[in-house]
Amino acid sequence: MAGTQFLCFGEYILYKGGNTYSINSCETIEVFYNIRTDLDKLKYASYITKIVNDVTTENQSAYKVMQLFLNTLYMISETDKDLSLINSVFIIRLLSIIGFRPMIEECKNCKAKDDLMYFSFRDSGFKCSTCGKQDKGAMQISPTTKDAIRYIILANAKKIFSFEVPKETIKELEIISKIYLQDKLEKEYKL
Ligand SMILES: [Zn+2]
Predict the structure, then answer these.
(1) Given phi > 0 = left and psi -120 to 50 = alpha, else beta, which region is 59?
(2) Run of H or E residues at 13
(3) Vertex 37 angle, CA 31 and 38, to 5°
(4) In angstroms, what is the span from residue 139 Cα to ligand 1's centroid?
(5) What is the pLDDT of residue 2?
(6) pTM of this prediction?
(7) What spacing in Å lies between the alpha carbon of 115 and ligand 1's midpoint?
């Protein structure tokens, strides 16, 4: 019973009977107990679980997604880091893993490397101030937000949450990740 609870991570031995699998035995590795006793943490954990369910399919190896999922649950469970920030990091990194990595090196339109002040949802990536102004689907972002997005995408998997940003950046990341997710997965997820 314990091994089949929500958010329980473990090693399972299954046997196939007809079209279904049954669990023969299971060794629990992590149960994320702190998430179960905190409604806010539970809300965010449920939200990311729904997304992970949608982007993975049965019998398909999804190591990178699982690693990100577990690291995110660990952050939610074991730290006091801002939950909205954890959520935004998860979404931006997840979308990059599954094939929606935005252009973060140069302006998506003119290839300029400096003055990148906009995030374009339509063209999936940064835009310089000149091109960004002409893109109605682009959002102006602060330099800190730009650096944070780069960090989230480029950092080593174990380090993606190791940064601090001001409240304004947390808000900007929240807006960007929410719209980008909705845009790419063509589905609205409610927290
Ligand atoms: Zn440009």
Answers:
(1) left
(2) strand 9-17
(3) 115
(4) 14
(5) 78
(6) 0.94
(7) 9
Ligand 1 mean position to 103 CA, how many Å?
12
Residue 130 CA to ligand 1 center (angstroms) comes to 6
Cα 173 to middle of ligand 1, angstroms: 21
55 C-alpha to ligand 1 centroid (Å): 32
- Give pLDDT tens digits for 107-150: 999 999 999 999 999 999 999 999 999 999 899 999 999 999 99
Rounded distance from Cα 108 to ligand 1 centre (Å): 7
Secondary structure (3-state) at 31? coil
Could you give the C-alpha distances from 21 to 13, 15, 118, 128, in angstroms and in order? 10, 5, 49, 52
Do the beta carbons of residue 114 and residue 102 sit within 8 Å? no
Cα(136) to centroid(ligand 1), Å: 14
List helix spans (H) across the chain. 33-36, 39-55, 63-78, 83-97, 129-133, 143-154, 167-185
- Structural domains present in the chain: 1-31 (no CATH), 34-185 (1.20.1440.120)
